Amino acid sequence: MKPGKILKIALSMVKANKLRSWLTIIGVIIGIASVMAIVTTGEYFEKEVTETLEGFGGDTITIVASIPFQMTDEEYIIEESEELEGSSEDSGGSSETIGETEESEEEAETDPSYSIEFEAIEEAELTKMDIFTLRSIPAIEYINVNVEQDAELEFGGESTIVWIKGVDPGVWPEIARKDLEQGRMLKAGDRNVVVLSNELAKETFEKEIRLNQMILLNDRSYRVVGILAKNSGLLGGLNGLFGSSIYMPYQDVYSLSSDEDLPEIERDVYSAIEVKLYKGADYDSALQEIESKLRLSRRVNEDTQDFYINSDKKAIENARKLINGLTAFLAFIAGISLLVGSTGIANTMFTSVLEKTKEIGIMKAIGAKNRDIMLIFLCNSAMISLVGGIIGILLGTAAVQAVLLFLSIKMDAPFEFALSLKATFIATFVSIIVGLIAGLVPAKNASELKPVDALRYE
Fold first, then answer.
1. How many CA atoms lie within 13 Å of 368's alpha carbon, on the beta-carbon side?
2. Where are the chain's structural domains?
3. How far apart are alpha carbons 57 and 248 in whole angstroms?
4. Are 314 and 284 in contact (CB under 8 A)?
């Protein structure tokens, strides 16, 4: 039997029982639409989270100074004395306990080994020595220093407190993942110039800050040479919310002091150091080399380490793994409805075999082969499943767009159309496979009917 004839008979079987076919198709639609919506949404948010984290640093490695937590002898003595005071209260303030306490206090006053001294803790710092150490590592391509401070911004008779990040103007454009809307990025040799975030320039004051205008930071004048582009996507606003508002050469930050009584920031001391590796460099080996060389130059070990290395790449990978795992789990749950849909297809096909038994006998009597009968019923089930799959893909995609449109309105973010080609391909493939598997047993039963028995069937 020719393929065209087989498809024509299968299509006529679908049309013959429209209500039953559509009820079966609805089961497939629900399963495919659920899987499509979940996978598309998961891929969209994976992209958004990745772009947002990359906006904070991307593949850079950030080094910050941190003091290790240690329990000192003085703290131990203080806690011990507090426990003694608590025990004296519980005993009702007996003279014996009070006497012991007074003796211990006298002993602490006379014995220097028990004296409690509150010494100023020396804070850990990142300095030029750390820069020299990092430059000796072959895998590092760029080294950028950060000096951060808050300041009062005045413009157009209004003022607000902003967060400033001082950067190396010759390196920052190479390491930062920032897009410009107007002007230019910082460049080597710049002084007394700033680059503003889009949110600060356009939304903070009644009057918009424009390119080449002057602003006051703690009563010092700076010229605006660049305005960053607004980050796109639903999570793009997080860069403006948690990121810095103003970028300037780090040398200028040292002189920003909001209070005359407070000393200026110590020069050649950095809030953080950012490094970027050469393309193709071994990331894990570079991290280990950075840590070991900094420990050696700072004369610390694993227990006394006074710096912390933050790997943005690992944070991005962990976020992607989390979202992918959650998406796969939810898609599996939604896929259970596909099992229900396949059961409906199988039930419809078994019913069709019973209804068409006499017609099967007639077709076999005039020369139809077992393979032809089997293909007719397989095409019938595949058509039902494919129609349900296509409608499910359209409904699932429409549902995702509706949700993203609602979120974009609520979060005042630009709407982005999201369509997962992978999810579309998987949904189409799965819908056909489900139809074929569900119709396989009924089609096999129909093909094995004997013509005499089929013709006698009433």
1. 25
2. 3-56+317-456, 71-101, 126-305
3. 17
4. no
On whether the CB atoms of residues 365 and 372 are closer than 8 A, the answer is no
CB 23 within 8 A of CB 344: yes
Element housing 430 (H / E): helix 421-447
Provide CB contacts within 8 A for 304, sequence distance 6+: 68
Query: Would you say 186 and 169 are in contact if contact means Cβ atoms under 8 Å apart?
Result: yes
**Please, which residues bridge with residue 255 across strands?**
none
**Cβ proximity of 314 and 336 under 8 Å:** no
Per DSSP (E only), the strands in 170-281 are 180-183, 193-196, 214-217, 220-228, 246-249, 269-270, 272-277
217-247 pLDDT tens trace? 998 999 999 999 876 555 555 444 444 589 9
**Which residue, 184, 226, 234, is CA-closest to 41?**
234
Task: Give CA–CA dist 234/154, Å, rounded.
Answer: 30
pLDDT digits (tens, 9 = 90+) for 349-395: 888 777 777 777 788 777 778 888 888 888 888 888 888 888 988 99
Scan for tokens 């209260």, then name that residue: 89
Please choose, from the candidates 128, 144, 125, the residue with its C-alpha nearest in 3D space to the C-alpha of residue 67.
Answer: 125
255 Cβ neighbours under 8 A, 6+ residues apart: 220, 264
CA distance 281 to 42: 30
Buried b / exposed e over 9-31, threshold 16 CB at 10 Å, is bbeebbeeeeebbeebbebbbbb
Residues in the chain: 458
| Token pair of 98 as six digits | 């009070």
Q: Is 140 helix (H, G, I), strand (E, B) or coil?
A: strand
Instruction: Name the pTM for this structure.
Output: 0.60
